[in-house]
Automatic annotation (TrEMBL):
Similarity comment text for this entry: Belongs to the ice-binding protein family.
Domain called BIG2: residue spans: 43-125, 139-220
Leader peptide range in chain numbering: 1-23
Pfam families for the chain: Big_2, Ice_binding
InterPro entries: Big_2, Ice-bd_prot, Invasin/intimin_cell_adhesion
Nucleus recorded as keyword: no
Superkingdom per UniProt: Bacteria
Keyword terms: Signal
Keyword Signal in record: yes
Record protein name field: BIG2 domain-containing protein
Gene3D superfamilies: 2.60.40.1080
Length: 470
């Protein structure tokens, strides 16, 4: 009797335990959320896929996330337990488990995630890959040399300029970037800067080479120019009157004859000081390579202008020329070199082993030679008619607002400045005379003026709001 009672009790307990387990575990992902407490599962409300819209290029991938939301306000990530699909598998594919989508062809595809009885969706836009074109390579397509033909005397120099043409039709001066050679170094030599110097009478070819491109210019060397010194005017000697011997007949006294008074002639100094500017005389600004002038500025040049390359042509009054032809400029270039040689051959009245600041000095006509630089601070006064030649083995520099005053017959066209190195005229300075630069730059500061003078350079000239009158 007791055995039956205990057996019935055990069977009932076992049945209740099984019912509790089945009620707790459910058999679905949406039920049995709290098996310990035995609470009923919250109802699945929706599935959301993020991001809602995404864009990728063909071949690229996008990870989507599936989130389940429940009626009790909770949510959880169900990405790995959802079933994923693409509405347009030819445009984009997606891993069935995991939500990783990959773009295949340009277009738009709906990506869905199914969990329980709910489905969420997002949109994947696939764009085509944009080809990247390599940058265009600009190369040198041509090379030219100016002047194409030139003539110099023995001992004089001719500046050649190399101009490159590129594949984009642009051009540039590359004189210092090419290799220069002379066809006959016995006739003429050429420096790395393109300056050729005559050695002996004859003809040669000057060649510029850059990579596989080359160009030539013809050079004729003529005999050296021999300039005769000005004639020496002998002093006027009054005639010798033989004494009158009176007859010995006293008391007759012979008449006294006085010699005539002779006034020696006045010899005027040549207007260019005897240096001889030749065909360069008509130019107020002359450069062998380039003239650089500020755009929209107030530069005014009263005289001829000459250079093969000019970024902004300076303003000129009517009646004056702007020459760019290498052939037309070869003559003035040649005469500039001769003028420098003539100036350097003048004997020095003042010879110094150092440089000098001419500010505050009053000087008379003569040849002033300095082994250092010449500078000017303040005012220089030149007094008296005659040539003034200032030679420097270094630079010529005038400070801002410096001036040159001419008194007692001194004339600007008799003043010559011959530096070996570069010339710089300070801003708002008032300069007078002709600068003869055989192979270096001449640079004018803002507002500097050159009245009754010239800027003649064997290289380049830079201007900025200047007034220049030859």
């Amino acid at each position: 009797m007791n055995i039956k009672k205990y057996t019935t009790t055990l069977l009932c307990a076992t049945g209740l335990l099984a019912v509790s387990v089945l009620a707790a575990c459910g058999g679905s992902s949406d039920r049995g959320r709290d098996p310990i407490l035995g609470l009923p599962a919250a109802e699945l409300v929706s599935v959301t896929v993020t991001p809602p819209t995404a864009t990728v290029l063909t071949g690229a991938s996008q990870q989507f996330i599936a989130t389940a939301s429940y009626a009790d306000g909770t949510s959880r990530n169900v990405t790995d337990v959802s079933v994923w699909a693409s509405a347009s598998p030819t445009i984009a594919r997606v891993t069935p488990a995991g939500g990783l989508a990959t773009g295949l062809t340009p277009g738009s595809a709906a990506i869905t995630a199914a969990f329980g009885a709910k489905t969420g969706a997002a949109t994947l836009v696939v764009n085509a890959q944009v080809p990247v074109n390599p940058p265009a390579v600009i190369s040198v397509t041509g090379l030219s040399v100016t002047p194409a033909a030139a003539s110099v005397r023995v001992g004089a120099s001719q500046q050649f300029t190399a101009i490159a043409t590129y594949s984009d039709s642009s051009t540039a001066v590359i004189t210092n970037d090419v290799k220069w050679t002379s066809g006959s170094t016995a006739t003429a030599t050429v420096a790395a800067s393109g300056s050729a110097t005559g050695v002996t009478v004859g003809n040669t070819v000057i060649t510029a080479t850059s990579g596989d491109k080359s160009a030539t210019g013809a050079l004729t060397v003529t005999p050296a120019l021999i300039i005769d010194p000005p004639p020496v005017v002998p002093p006027v000697v009054p005639p010798v009157v033989p004494p009158v011997v009176p007859p010995v007949v006293p008391p007759v006294v012979p008449p006294v004859t006085n010699p005539p008074v002779v006034t020696p002639p006045v010899i005027e100094a040549p207007s260019d000081g005897g240096i001889g500017l030749g065909r360069a005389r008509e130019f107020a600004v002359l450069a062998v390579t380039t003239i650089t002038n500020n755009a929209g500025g107030t530069t005014l040049v009263t005289g001829d202008v000459g250079a093969p390359l000019q970024n902004v042509e300076p303003e000129q009054p009517l009646g004056f020329r702007n020459v760019k032809s290498g052939f037309e400029l070869s003559g003035p270039y040649q005469d500039l070199q001769v003028a420098v040689i003539n100036a350097n051959n003048r004997p020095c009245a003042i010879l110094s082993d150092a440089g000098i600041d001419l500010g505050g000095l009053v000087l008379q006509p003569g040849v002033y030679c300095y082994s250092g630089a010449i500078s000017l601070t303040g005012k220089l006064t030149l007094s008296g008619n005659g040539p003034y030649i200032f030679r420097a083995k270094s630079t010529l520099t005038t400070m801002a607002n410096s001036t040159i005053e001419l008194i007692n017959g001194a004339r600007a066209d008799n003043v010559f400045w011959v530096p070996v190195e570069a010339t710089t005229l300070g801003a708002n300075s008032a300069f007078k005379g002709t600068v003869l630069s055989r192979g270096e730059d001449i640079t004018l500061g803002d507002g500097a003026t050159v009245l009754n003078g010239r800027l003649l350079s064997g290289k380049a000239v830079t201007l900025r709001n200047n007034k220049i009158t030859k």
